[in-house]
Design brief:
single chain, 246 residues, 16% strand, globular, binds phosphoenolpyruvate
Length: 246
């Protein structure tokens, strides 16, 4: 991907462990006519369905932290590049959480492999409800961010997704004020630590729906959205992208 100053907002769908061949193909067909002038569309299906995505950018939800070899069940970044993935999500809170216990060091290794294989890493960060209530949200996000992004990160090979854990899948998005404060904070960290950090896209994720998309997507320093539940229906996903224009 060539970096341009007027990088479009990124509307990214994370299907998690949902959909099947039929629904993935039908979704792809629904995306055939979307307008790409203002929005960059991305779908991240489960691995078996990635190649059914032909009408938007395609991405994966995760990759191995290792290059290749005896890692049963893992999928490497080079394999994702081989099937023409453009993006790979790393460090989603569902992978940082207890079931997988991924640390920011592991997330950084994955992001590095994504970048080394010519794709763009979507590095997720976000605090839990407990951390927010204890007043630690900004420190937690800053720590995750600085430990999770590789040294050679640039706006054309990395996107940050701020996803407060308490807003994911709960139907309760963060308020515009919370989103604005955190995205401005992340912007300052990127400006101080990343080459051209003022240009790196920062997505918001957490219960984005068609009815709150316009408000969330038009906040300063919100350069797109990472969408879980509402990315399972093409109609809702497209409506979210259309909110960028409004
Ligand atoms: C996500 O899992 O990245 C997410 C944002 O989910 P949801 O949109 O369902 O809150």
């Amino acid at each position: 991907m060539k970096w341009t100053q007027d990088m479009k907002k990124l509307i990214a769908g994370n299907w998690k462990m949902n959909m099947n061949t039929e629904s993935a193909k039908a979704f792809d067909q629904a995306m055939a006519k979307v307008d790409e002038k203002i929005v960059e569309w991305l779908i991240c299906p489960p691995y078996p369905y990635i190649q059914h995505i032909t009408n938007t950018k395609r991405g994966a939800q995760d990759c191995s932290a290792y290059y290749s070899g005896a890692f049963t069940g893992e999928v490497s970044a080079s394999m994702l590049a081989d099937i023409q993935c453009d993006y790979c999500i790393v460090g989603h809170s569902e992978r940082r959480a207890e079931a997988h216990c991924e640390t920011s060091d592991i997330v950084r290794q994955k992001a590095q492999l994504v970048i080394d294989n010519g794709m763009t890493a979507i590095v997720c960060v976000g605090e839990t409800l407990e951390e927010r209530e204890e007043g630690k949200a900004f420190d937690i996000v800053e720590g995750q961010l600085l430990k999770s992004i590789p040294n050679d990160t640039r706006p054309d090979n990395c996107v940050i997704a701020y996803e407060p854990v308490w807003a994911i899948g709960t139907g309760k998005a963060a308020t515009s004020c919370d989103v604005s404060n955190m995205h401005n904070y992340i912007r300052e960290i990127l400006k101080s630590n990343v080459a051209d950090g003022e240009e790196m896209r920062i997505l918001y994720g957490g219960s984005v729906k068609p009815d709150n998309a316009a408000e969330l997507l038009n906040i300063d320093n919100v350069d797109g959205a990472l969408i879980g539940g509402a990315s399972l229906k093409a109609e809702d996903f497209i409506a979210i992208g259309k909110a960028v224009e409004s």
